[in-house]
């Protein structure tokens, strides 16, 4: 698809947005087209369409499924600042040295985006992604567009309902975020629930001390985590070929913490880090190595560039590093591990331009179905509830007791999948909000 680079100049420079379409087999009962977004923001989706088709079953066959690689990501018009490392989800660390290292890193990353990249990236935003979606709808000849979006994709769907309320059909917003906390602010309040998730995991690990040797009680397991974090601040831990400092340890922990099905992986990560803190030679597991490669080796630089540009384009942030330091210091005591991660400085503080438009104020009565796991540590329940309130015509289903990110089709929770499929088939939202269990 060819779309305007700048929607304020619709006849000016253009870019391409790559899409994949899988036609539904049930043409007799066809409903329309559905765009799928996996969040990120800027996660490429084009190659995931066959997986979505297989997962959705008979209900999905009534839709043409559309995977859109967001502007500047995947196979869309590319942009890449050639970043040697990545800032998300790196922490500001345990002390001023860690914070200063993050300031230097983020200043360097922003500075690597030269004039050619800047001409594109100044037009990266969720609002422009929503406008791209409507261009696709029009090109397909659809009067309305259905949508399935996860995480940051829930915000994209909400923005679409605000900009194009009469063109929104079935809207599924899964693992939703507070539309007021757009841009890099989205995780500012994440630390308390991440602490709760870590304590829940610590109890699980303590019950398996014979397997992981992290501590016989939850408090002992948490003490092991604190010991690792403190050691990494004194001297980077040697994990294979990587030097893991206090800006990386929280990222390595929060990645598997996202899913309660990854409890064993998190225990393996902490055990590896604990042995490294004791001076033992260790190698990272496959998942741990992949996380480190993305954060330290610059793997995925193009996607990371696009993700950052969208976050920076969605909302202005303070450009004063000391403001971040003071904020971290005010909150550090309540969660030494996760508050510096949630409140860290980002490249947006050094971005070469301000957002082109103000954040979209989401408040409308467009029908939508909000799906949320109760204990999600990334897109958290209060944020999903805020989105539900902002979309006054929406309904909400909460999966009780689950610590997961991405529920419909990913979790295998029949109570959620059946409710979503019924809405997709009929176009009628559930009569009331609901909480259900797996």
List keywords for this structure.
42% helix, 16 helices, single chain, Rossmann fold, alpha/beta, 8-stranded mixed β-sheet, two-stranded antiparallel ribbon, 438 residues, 12 strands
- Total count of strands: 12
Major sheet description: 8 strands, mixed
> Helical stretch count?
16
The unreliable regions are none
- CATH fourth-tier homologous superfamily of the domain at 2-78 and 122-184 and 363-436: Alpha/Beta hydrolase fold, catalytic domain
- What name is given to the CATH topology of the domain at 2-78 and 122-184 and 363-436? Rossmann fold
Mean pLDDT: 97
How is the secondary structure organized here?
Blueprint: E1 2-4, E2 14-16, E3 19-22, E4 32-37, H1 49-60, E5 63-68, H2 96-111, H3 115-121, H4 126-139, E6 145-150, H5 152-163, E7 168-174, H6 191-206, H7 209-212, H8 218-234, E8 237-239, E9 242-244, H9 249-257, H10 263-277, H11 286-296, H12 301-314, H13 321-331, H14 339-342, E10 369-373, H15 381-390, E11 395-399, H16 414-426, E12 434-436
Parallel strand pairs: 4-5, 4-6, 6-7, 7-10, 10-11, 11-12
Antiparallel strand pairs: 1-2, 3-5, 8-9
Helix pairs in contact: 4-5, 6-8, 8-10, 9-10
Protein name: Peptidase
Pfam family, one: Abhydrolase_4
Family: Belongs to the peptidase S33 family.
